[in-house]
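The instructor's notes for this session suggest beginning with a concrete chain rather than abstract definitions. Hand out the sequence below and ask the class to guess, before any prediction is shown, which regions might be ordered.
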Amino acid sequence: MKRETSAETEDRKQKAESGRQAGAILVPAHRARILIVDDDPRMRELLADMVEGLGHEPVSVPDGIAALAAVTWQPPDLVLSDVSMPGLNGFELCRRLKADPKTRLIPVVLITGIGDEFKLQGIEAGADDFLSKPFGPGDLRVRIRALLRMKAFIDEMEYAEAVLCALGKSIEARDPSTEGHCERLADSGVALGRKLGLAEEELQALRLGGYLHDLGKLVFPDAILLKPGPLTAAEREVVRKHPIVGEEICQPLRSLRSVLPIIRHHHERLNGSGYPDSLRGEAIPLTARILQVVDVFDALTTDRPYRRALPWATALGVLKDEVEEGWWDRRVVEVFRQVVAEIQPLRGEGKGVRSSPGAGHPLLQGVDARSPLRDPGGSDAESPGR
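After discussion, reveal the predicted structure:
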C-alpha cells in the first residue's frame, strides 16, 4: 500500500473541512447512517470525514462481504461503495442488495476511478448514482442529499402502507373467528403466485393484498360484520360496497397501484356474477383470481361459527365444481391443487383454522378466513365477512 504524502494528507484534511462547512449549510433532518465500502483505508477515512462533516454517521468496512454483514446487522440509510475491490466487487454487492426485498430500497452510490464505461454495468446492477474519482465534498453532498430525500419519501410510503395493513388487521380484532387471516392470506397468495410464475412486483401486490383486500369492511357496523345468519337486502348493498371503499382508501398511495385491482375485484366471478363490476373472464386481474381461490379454500377448511371445517379433499372438490359453474379460474385452481398435493403429506388433513393449510406452511397459509362463500341460509357471495 502506497504511503500517503504530506501533500496528500493536507489535501484530505482540506476536503474534510470543506465537507464540514457544507454540512453547516445543510442541516440534515436526522443523522443518517451511511455505509462506506472501500478496500483502501485512506479512501475510507476521507469519505468518513466528509460524511461526518455533513452531519451523518459513517460506518466503514473494507470489502463487499463485510458490507453484506453490516447491512444485515443494521441496515444503513445509504451505501457508498468502491467498484474495484478484491472478492465481492461493488457491482456484485449492489446487485445482491437490489435483489433482496429487504435491502433493495437502500440507495447505492458506486465510486470508481476507471472512467464512465463502468456506468452501464452499474446501471445494470441497480446503482442509484455514481461518483467518479477525483471528487470533492460538493459532489458527495449533492448525491447524499438527493438520495436521502428519496429514501425519506420511500420510508414515508412504507409507513403509510404499514398503517393501512394495521387497519386491515384491526378487522380481525372485531371478529375473533378471523384471527390471523391477513397473514395466512398474504403468505398463501404469494406462494400460489410464485408457483404460477408471477413477477416479483405481482408477488408483492399479493402480499399486500392479503392485508388490504377487505379494508373497506372498516365501514361495516358490527351488526353486519358479526351477523351469523343471512343478510337483508339493505345489508347486502352495504357489503357490496366494501371493495370500492377499500380501493378509495388506498388509492392516494402510488405505491399501492398494483394492489388496487386485488382490492376492487376479489369478489368478481369469471361468469360475471360477482361484484362490484360484474367483470368476466380474463378481465378480472390474475392477482385477484389467485386471491379468490386461496380465500375460498381457507374458508372451507377452517371452522366457522355455523359449521365445522371441511376435509381438504372435499374442499378441493367444491372448488372444482365451482370452476365448472364458471366462478373460478381453471388453471389457478389446478395449480393450487398441485400445491395442496405437495404439502398435504407433510401436514396431514386440516381440521380447523390452526391445523388447516393456513397453519405453518407458506404455500398453504390460508386465506381470508371469511371467504365470499358459505353463508348459512343467505346469499353466499354477500355475507358480511366473506
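Then share the key points. Residues 6-151 form a domain with the Rossmann fold fold (CATH 3.40.50.2300). The beta strands are 33-37, 57-61, 78-82, 108-112, 129-132.
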